[in-house]
Amino acid sequence: MENYTIKNDHITLEAVPAKFYYAVTLSDGSRWEMKRTPYVKFGDGRIIEFPAPTSVTYKSSGTADIIKSTFDHFENSEISIITQVFADRTTGDVLFKINVSGDKKFEIEHVQFPAPLEFGAEEGHGYTVLSQMQGTLYPAGMQIIAETGLVYERDGYMPIYGQVRDGSGYAAIYETPYDVRYRVDEDRILPLWVHSLGRFRYMRTIRFCFRKNCDYNVIAKCYRSYLKERGRLVTLKEKIQCNPNVAKMQGIPVIHSGIAAHTSPESMFYDKEHPERNDWNTTFDHRAEELRKLKEKGLEHAYTHFDGWGRHGYDNLHPDPFPPHEKAGGAAGMARLSDTCRELGYIFGIHDQYRDYYFDSPDFCIDDAVLKADGTHQVYKVWAGGAQTFLCSVFQPDYVRRNYQRFRELGINIDAAYLDVFSVVELDECYNPDHPATRSDCAKFRRHCFDMLTDQGIIPSSEEGIDCIIPSLVLCHHAPFHSTAFDTDVDAVGIPIPLLNLVYHDCFIVPWIGLPGERGGWCIPKTDSAYAYAILYGQPVYCPIDASEEDIRDVKFACANAGKLFFEELLSHEFVGEGYRVQRTTFSDGTVITVDLDSGKFEIK
């Protein structure tokens, strides 16, 4: 049985590959261990642990010490698995790589590797950090709750997690993030690699960055440095260079309103008791008049977002909602609203959608929809437009290109566009042999849609903030907290922290929905003020379209704070005193903000 002890300037790595034992000791004596056996879950439901390795080799390169193990003889399977453990001498990071070969299509559901790091911290001596929505901290002893464990969805905005125990900790970074999820076993986090289009088609890698003096800020900054080194941290300054109109977003509020709605009898939201409520509309001119009143009350600048401008209103007929809603004023009325926004100094933005693919769309062709592995198409009847499936990501950029050409032909100037769900829902795989798409492909095509808007000087936005889309985004609708439900009147799950903002504050805008004195909101704990979080995190707020002069003063105050911090990195977040209700943030320009979530009072220095 081979035992290995590898030392460098940062860590000591002890490895017994035959027993699946790995231990990392830091220079302060703190120790992190893996003791469990990885496993394969096969498509037929069998769970088989890795057998003893058939070979183990060691080599030293110019930058790393590497232990390579080969695993064969999985029961009733011809798969072979090669793992490599890299101890990077320059950084002290430890990388675990796995490559699966010989797997038949759909033979494997997922592979759990590496084994989880043992945690075992007592209450008050550590915590787990997950990138669930804005960010979640679970103190030792608190139950960790993850619904799907999906990376690039609400359980994992960013492909990272970490743990801290008595000041020592690590950041885990999925270097191959598109086909992975995680599972929670008590206080352990288990990486699960899943197939891509039915097969394990490439090597998977996870990096562990160990730190002696660690907290959740350090975990976030490990990932930020990782992104920056690889050219994947695109700041707002850089986005302005690509699209100068982005500069107009500095320190302004969001006005979100609608034009028209039609709820199909097929929809889950259809009101059978009051059918008259299923259809409504206002006019583009009426919305323009409301904006003029806001200007008169003192709102100098704003970003507007209008839902339901299409033929049948909100969430209908996509990807072809044209022509603009006739009763609301048609194309001419929509053009007047756009022109009014420009006259007032406001940005004219619209809701748009290129994933939901409605059966009654004039363009609908079932062959262009996402084909599932079993040869069927997903069909939903949830949203207002009724029966829908999903448009394959391969075709999404083509529709964006065509539709924004249509706007130009109609004389409608679009300043900003919100492409719904692209930065929150899971990445799609398509099994149609005429247009196959992996999850990685899906992310690429979604970014292409946003980049196309940027190329036309249009400010791109979407729903929340999954990390693989952020380089192409300027703002999102919101990015609140992991809660007891995706709804209002909720409690937090774990302790909310601004993990996303610690990585990306100077890269994209996260507005908050709420005014002083208001509590709760969608995925905002019912005890908390979204306005207070906006102040604390240096982000703008929404302004109601019927805001009073007092509302506008409060909106302008929060947005002025956000404008001052627009280009600044959020350096740190901390809890002040006992409990978690008083919090402090520090920014790269020296600004320090302290907020008491109970009273709503804040101090900005």
Summarize the structure.
This protein is an alpha+beta fold. It folds into 2 domains: 4-229, Beta-galactosidase, Chain A, domain 5 (Distorted Sandwich); 243-262 and 271-351 and 396-421 and 439-604, TIM Barrel.
Kindly describe this structure.
By secondary structure, the protein is an alpha+beta fold. It has 2 domains: 4-229, Beta-galactosidase, Chain A, domain 5, CATH 2.70.98.10; 243-262 and 271-351 and 396-421 and 439-604, TIM Barrel (Alpha-Beta Barrel), CATH 3.20.20. The chain has a 10-stranded antiparallel sheet, covered by helices on one side. β31 (582-587) and β32 form a beta hairpin. α3 (284-296) runs parallel beside α4 and α5 (396-409) packs parallel to α6. The N and C termini lie far apart (60 Å). The mean pLDDT is 97.
